[in-house]
Amino acid sequence: MKESSQSRYVRQEIFEGIGPEGQADISAGRVAIIGLSGLGTTVANHLARAGVGFIRIIDGDYPDLIELQRQDIFTERDAREEIPKAVATKEYLEKVNSEIEIDAVISDVNSANIDHMIEDVDLVIDGTDSMELRLLINEACHALQKPWIYGGALAASGTTCNFLPGKDKPCFKCFVGEDIYEEEGEQPTCATVGVLSSTLGMIASLQATEALKILAGSPDVREEMIMFDLWENSFDSFPIDHDPDCPVCAHENYEFYGKAHGSQTVSMCGKDSVQVIPEIERNIDFAAYAGKLEKQGKVSYNEYTLNFDDGTIGIKLFKNGRAIIKHVNDISRAKAAYAEYIGI
């Protein structure tokens, strides 16, 4: 490839909103992207190409064939070989931009590890599909005084907003209030109403642009919520008011942050699976576990995961002891299967 004397970011540097100084700030910037589904992968792609100097990509899952419709970094090979999303994304981004640092973390974010995930970055970007995790991100970012960018997409509609540190600035809890706990389990999901790839691309592009503004120190950082529906051709923005009685940003009463105790379970959207996260991480010896499990079902493993199937349930075990219990949507049954087969 012929080397050019021009900066690879010249088209950004001549853009008035960024300029050479803004690009230097972007190149020195450090970002954590939590979740590598349709939003997180697209944001990561935009930011890597824009030259963000350090990008930590965090996800404990692996791609599925039905997700390729909306997750534009992964391939059929990634899904077939169940390559962890963080690994596949890192491999892709390093081919896009070899000048930046990509830190791939094969883990879910929870109250026990979120400090370690975000304490050394300038900005956190939400690429998750979990409301509980967003509430944790909100509390952790408030406690650590980190800006974060929320993004949500469902069907043809999407929402996004920047939540910035500072006195009397609203937080995500100000926006959702207590209503989020009403009718729990009855809210629509991508598995029940679907989602368009273009919806995710729209939200991710907005998130990535705001990220560049924040990193470059732009005065044009948006403080309003954006909401749109691509199918119905609507696009609105509105301010979020700071709640003077908000438990998070007014009283620092955190429901999720700093509350790690015991093992944790999370139902996985659209996968008929439950994730079990042990209280204490381990360094699993896959060969030893394969020997233990081979008499009870089918076992295979690679450097990232061990797969087990007893004909009724399946288990995908990760090196740190985290496991995805497949063909199960009952948390108690998932915990029982974990205890029976993994035993840690």
Unreliable stretches covering 5 or more consecutive residues:
none
- Beta-strand content bin: 15-25%
What would you call the structural class?
Answer: alpha/beta
Helix count, DSSP H or I runs of 4 or more residues: 12
Q: Span from first to last CA?
A: 51 Å
CATH topology of the largest domain: Rossmann fold
Notes on the structure:
The structure is a single chain. With 344 residues, this protein is α/β, with parallel strands linked by helices. It folds into two domains: 10-239, 3-Layer(aba) Sandwich (Rossmann fold); 264-341, TATA-Binding Protein (2-Layer Sandwich). Helices cover 32% and strands 21% of the residues. The protein has helices at residues 10-13, 19-28, 38-50, 76-80, 85-96, 114-118, 131-144, 172-176, 190-193, 197-216, 286-293, 331-341, and strands at 30-34, 54-58, 101-105, 123-126, 148-154, 157-163, 224-229, 234-239, 264-268, 273-277, 298-301, 305-309, 314-318, 323-326. The strands form two sheets. Strands 3-2-1-4-5-6-7-8 form an eight-stranded mixed β-sheet, sandwiched between helices. β7 (224-229) and β8 (234-239) form a beta hairpin. The longest helix is centred in the middle third of the chain and has 20 residues, at 197-216. The radius of gyration is 21 Å and the shape is globular. It starts with 9 loop residues before the first helix and ends with a helix. The model has no long low-confidence stretch (mean pLDDT 90).
